[in-house]
Amino acid sequence: MTSGIPLRDDFDGFALRALAKGTKDAAQARRLLALAEIYDGHSRSDAARIGGVTLQIVRDWVIRFNARGPSGLINGKAPGNQGKLSDVHRQALAKIVESGPVPAVHGVVRWRRKDLVQWLFQEYRISVDETTIGRELKALGFAKLSARPRHYAQNEGDLESFKKSSPPHWQQSKAGSRRTSRLSSGGPTKLG
Hints:
mainly alpha, Winged_HTH_dom
C-alpha cells in the first residue's frame, strides 16, 4: 500500500482543531478536523470517516490544504464560462446604441436586441443570444424603453369626452347620523 500525499509541516493537529473551533464555515471546520486526524497519526480512512467522505475527497482536501492552507478548504464559487464579449466589444456596443441606428445603413429606425445581435455578428463574427445582449446593455447602464401603444386613429380632442366627469353617488355620513336614526325608529328591526 502506498503512503498518501504528505501534509505541509507548518501546521499540526492542535492548530487545525483550534482553527476548526474558530471558523464560522461548517464545511471548512469538518475538513480541518479530518486533516487534524491525519496530523495526529491516524489513517486517512479514519479522516474520511470523520469527514463523511471517500478517500479520494480526503486526497483532494490534502492537495488544496497544501497549496493554499486553511483557506483552501473553504468552498469557492466556480468561475463559470468565459464571456464572449470583451471590453472592446462592450465599448463598441455602447457607442452604437448611444449614437442610434442610421436607417439607410442599418435598415432599422430603432435598436432592438435582435438587431444588435445581428450587428455584432456582422462586425465581429460573434454569435450571442438576445438575452446576453440585454444583460450586457443593462450592465452598461442602458434601460429598455418602450412607447405606450396608441391607436392610429386616436384623436387628442376626443379623449376629454370619455373621461369620468360625473360626481360620485355616495356622500359622507354626518357625525352621529347612524346612531340617531336607530333611536328614532325604535331600535333595530328584525327581518323575517
